[in-house]
TrEMBL record, chains A, B:
The keyword Transferase applies. This is PLP-dependent transferase. Pfam families: Aminotran_1_2. GO terms for molecular function: pyridoxal phosphate binding; transaminase activity. Residues 125-408 form the Aminotransferase class I/classII large domain.
Amino acid sequence: MSSEKRPKAIDLSHHVSDFARRYALSPLKGLQKYYGKDTIGLAGGLPSPDYFPFTSVSANILPVDAFPLTVPRASSPASASSSAFGWLWRIFGGGAGRRDDTTTRIEVPREPRPDDGGVNLAAALQYGPATGLPRLQKFMHEFTERVYAPGYDNWTTLVHTGNTDAWGRISKLLLNPGDTLLVEEWTYPSAMASARPIDARWHGVPMDNQGMRADALREILAGWDVEKSGPRPRVIYTVPVGQNPCGTTMGLERKKAIYDICVEYDLIIAEDDPYFFIQIGEFVPKSQRKAERESPAGEEVSRFIDSLVPSFLRVDTQGRVIRMDTFSKTIAPGVRLGWFTCNPLFVERLERIGETSAQNPCGLGQALVVALLTQWTFDGYIRWLRGLRTQYQHRRDFLVDCLAEEFELSPEPSITTSGGPALLCAYPRGSGSGGLLGKKARPLLSFVPPSSGMFVWVKLHFGDVPDKRDESDGSVLTPDRQFWEKLAKAGVLVGPGWIFAPALGAPPTEADRQTGYVRVSYTPSDMETTRQGIKIFAQTLREFCRV
Amino acid sequence: MSSEKRPKAIDLSHHVSDFARRYALSPLKGLQKYYGKDTIGLAGGLPSPDYFPFTSVSANILPVDAFPLTVPRASSPASASSSAFGWLWRIFGGGAGRRDDTTTRIEVPREPRPDDGGVNLAAALQYGPATGLPRLQKFMHEFTERVYAPGYDNWTTLVHTGNTDAWGRISKLLLNPGDTLLVEEWTYPSAMASARPIDARWHGVPMDNQGMRADALREILAGWDVEKSGPRPRVIYTVPVGQNPCGTTMGLERKKAIYDICVEYDLIIAEDDPYFFIQIGEFVPKSQRKAERESPAGEEVSRFIDSLVPSFLRVDTQGRVIRMDTFSKTIAPGVRLGWFTCNPLFVERLERIGETSAQNPCGLGQALVVALLTQWTFDGYIRWLRGLRTQYQHRRDFLVDCLAEEFELSPEPSITTSGGPALLCAYPRGSGSGGLLGKKARPLLSFVPPSSGMFVWVKLHFGDVPDKRDESDGSVLTPDRQFWEKLAKAGVLVGPGWIFAPALGAPPTEADRQTGYVRVSYTPSDMETTRQGIKIFAQTLREFCRV
């Protein structure tokens, strides 16, 4: 891709909000051109590095191959939950001696050295520019080129403190009061949280098994009534991979179709992609599962990158995609570090917005992450990501296997649209073959096993459970709220579906009323606990639906 | 203070901006009440701590008494610049063996332990609430009570990622478009940078040697013309200690007077106080300088706290002060950590605003700072701050001594208003006694040596230097701009006065035109370099003024 001649970004300055437009370049920036190697600086309020109490910071880190690329066959939910946990700990070197054997020590030294890219405490503990440590900048740029290969030439990157910060800044960059933001039919609450104070609205675009539907998007834009609904939307917020909460993943063709509509109607795409590297493949029932074949030596890196659904950046020839990357799911959320990739005009404004909010990310976090990546190398980091993918694949399989132990799971390919993975319907055990024509034709729940991310989006079919009154405030409790609370009282928390609804407060139809959604995550708890949670979940649901 | 009965904060909800008002409580927060010790969590998108590649993080830290409480007499600028530097390095344990002898190792372990207050990698590397690690919360609260002793009862604290983030959030909390923010006559550019995108204006309040003048504030408010200037100001942004750029410090009486006006006119005070612990006492000429007497044993902590001009919080009986504390000047800027102290209503909104911007501060930074403070203890941290104070006092003295070597410095107490420290006027060496009545009565520069902070605000008296045209764009270059550029080309950067002017772009009067300001900082460069810089500064100024 990099050898091809790529077009330049087009002028999209009309998308900058009034708020973002008013930012001025800091007058201090004007001074930077005067700084030379031998300049005597008496201008700034920087404390002397001699006064920083940390004289060195170091960490022990796992090796890049801490996690295997194949999952042992033994890890069935019934027998192996505890042994699976033990297996994990063996792999991690969880034993007292083992961990020290396999970890490496990285250090951020006090004094700068030539070509250290700012990875020293004198720089990392000092005020820094909102653009981050030089070596981190270099990493972000090279990683983006090699992994995402944007479709235009003059894209650029900018560090941020995680995708929440990133989307907060993007919403300020693009949205004016009264604007409508397009989101997926079910979406991450944070998307709405950032739009609300700006007095922007949001509108859900219907989804299928690949996430946002291109035809539905076009219909909304073509039929937009400016009189009734205000300015036509200019911004899409999307989680294209492992969508939150639905777990869907957009294929390349879908991305192209949506991008083309954005070109036609002049929209900007905010691509929030924390789960990009958790592309774990389609779910395969346990009996048919095979270990992934190893890549031929020397081809591991390119084969892995090629195996991933490309980013929206790949189809972006005009600079209308703002991609958000984060280390939260690949290193750790607590480092609060990630980066934007977009056109230079937007990056310049995002930097200004950052200068009066998060400012530069914590230097200790930056330095330790960069030291880790330097120690690992690019190829090593890819190996680490492959190991993580296997872990999450295993956890996804494990959760679905747990559900298969509690219910009779039956695929219903006829319900699936647009060629995605099949819907699985779950019937009470012993209710016969299930299926749509059987006597007990109503499934208790249904879901599509996700091929990316961390979540199973489970539709619950309650049947004919009546509404209840809340004892404390007299409000109506629909069945989904009754069930969620019953489950919580039984000691299991799942994500309540209604918090992901863009149309919060819309009265449910009768059909809606007898269904509900929960987002079940296979990542936060260890396997034994997850299995226990699914057991309680299943039992509570059976009781609730009186089957 | 804590034993007295203090009043509750009054209702100040009408000060919340429309922007801040629209934030909603995240629906996810509603789930927290269901979390018990044995709850099985399948709700969140938290990665398993097993997948964090850091298995331990540690640091070497200086001892609390790394810096002495008295400065050796030998450190005169002429002889001791290099030896002073050597002395600093001796103190720091800069020698190869020495540093390890005196530093202590702190570690953030991987596994949680009971009562560790979140100082473990499982918590620090995970998503965290915007309120920070529990032990950090505890520290901030106790520190605020002991050091600032707020004048009302239900004040509360909230972590932020440095005072830039803090003021960014406060401006969003309080300012509506069209509002006018009151600032000091010369102010920190960041204050204006955050107000600008909101479409708020700013208005400078005249200052004297104690900073913002209470009488001038009252005059502005009493005479405010709503028709002409929009809504009467509701917010003051102030740097009361070691003001940036002027270096002035407000005494308690001044703070009381300003606070009373804020009660009368219903204003909120945003107290940006990064230099609070750099209260270094009035400047004493070298010949009269004596080493500070040691505090009696057992009284060091309370004597130190009592020696500091109290915060605005001390006089706040209604909850109308939002104080910003930061670790940037006391630990290191790169940790990006600080905290708000204010009424619970404002803190709740500031937390919401933080949730969609900086989110929780970097966990590695939080954990390392808390581990450091835990190791040091409260009393130890106070000892560290006392050592820092001595360092900055020494640096301030050194800079003024350097100026005294280049110029004939003469105090002009008659020019000083309101009983603050005396103005020093600098005359060319050999021009006689200087003084207002002498032949060469015009000083080249004048300044008040600051009793706090990091800056000397130097007024330059150019005499009759003509304007010039900029060769590149034909714009008029007033003498202050000509001099600043000439100095930069000579290799010395000082803070150009005009970037601190709230009334940017106002045409200067003829008297203004022949003066200018520069902010000279004694903190970023080592002493030898500082001395060299002042030499070049003095020579450049003499040449520029042809004396």
